[in-house]
Amino acid sequence: MPKVTVTVTLKPTLLDAQGRTVESALHGIGFDDADGVRIGKIIEMRIADGTPEAEIKSRVAAMCDRLLANPVTEDYKIEVSA
Amino acid sequence: MTAVIAAETSELSTVSTGLSTGQSAKSRPRIGVIVFPGSNCDRDAGNAFLETEHGDTVYLWHQESSLQGVDAVVVPGGFSYGDALRAGAIARFAPIMAEVARFADAGGLVAGVCNGFQILCEAGLLPGALIRNESLRFICRHVNLRVETTDSPFTTLYRQGEVLSIPVAHGEGCYTCDDATYARLIAENRVLFRYCEPDGSLTPEANPNGSRDNIAGIVGGPKRNILGMMPHPERAVSATLGSSDGARLLAGIHQALSAIS
């Protein structure tokens, strides 16, 4: 079954309070070079065998638009692998 | 003798009506409080209407597909579906929400408090979204709210500019929206409440969660009939609770419904 990975991230225009806190924690433990830390989430799933990749992508995009991502605050990216 | 029996019968039926719907059902609106798995302010909201005598409460389970003819709907606070994915994201697809949307589109009064506000935004019944508090902390305390407009059924009994003390209890209450939505909210005078200092001034310090422009509550819908707010007016309905400033919001709903019927 093909594996689908959806990456959901906060829109770049929004302040990512979690990312900012983690970035300052990284600086605190010596990783001063870490910059622009943003935190999102990954949603994995499998789709029935035999579904063409284009169809998988459009199905998963519909899932994102309806439920997996909030269009007001989030962007998403869909990757399909075997 | 017959007359006495008739009188007793009529008195009995009044009592039983009172028992089934709360008290004196006649003059009070029926307020439907939606209950999701994970709701935790449903009883607070229901009791607030009962105790202030501004409504009789009908609890509506999320799997139901009828609003049972209620006069107004409260979408209460809590953590519906454990806030899985995003606060309110799953709850908006509950069967009862299709009815709430129909009711709201027809101009029915719907009030979403805290998680209820998040759910109404997720459902697209109100614009914008609520994200993690800027501080990342869960905040549970009284805040000061400035009444921005009395032009809504929910705020008619306040004075514009009045400062209220109402508690908040949330981790994801940072109101956000795009510039076009914000411009429309302002142009249409749809911000009902802003977080403020005790003297009513708006400062970043008075903003507990980083909400855009200190926004704490907004109104939407075809007749300015949908309320969304993070603070909990139902937790501020008597001096015993530390504030009774929320009671006039309930009274406003009661008054608006009395005007309709």
Write the layout of secondary structure elements.
The complex is a heterodimer of chains A (82) and B (261).
Chain A: E1 3-10, H1 17-28, E2 41-46, H2 53-68, E3 74-81
Chain B: H1 2-21, E1 30-35, H2 42-51, E2 56-61, E3 72-75, H3 95-105, E4 109-113, H4 115-122, E5 129-131, E6 139-147, E7 163-170, E8 174-176, H5 179-187, E9 191-196, E10 215-220, E11 226-229, H6 247-260
Parallel strand pairs in B: 1-2, 1-3, 3-4, 4-11
Antiparallel strand pairs in B: 5-8, 6-7, 6-9, 9-10, 10-11
Question: What's the tally of helices of chain B?
Answer: 6
Structural class estimated from helices and strands of chain A: alpha+beta
Q: What is the number of beta strands of chain A?
A: 3
Spans of at least 5 consecutive residues with low confidence of chain B: 1-25
Report the span from N to C terminus of chain B. Answer: 38 Å
Largest sheet of chain A: 3 strands, antiparallel
Fraction of residues in β-strands of chain A? 25-35%
The order of strands across the largest sheet of chain A is 2-1-3
Report the count of strand segments of chain B: 11
Radius of gyration of chain A: 16 Å
Mean pLDDT of chain B: 91
Provide the low-confidence segments of chain A as ranges. none
Structural class of chain B: alpha/beta
Average pLDDT of chain A, rounded to a whole number, is 95
What percentage of residues of chain A falls in helices of 4 or more residues? Answer: 25-40%
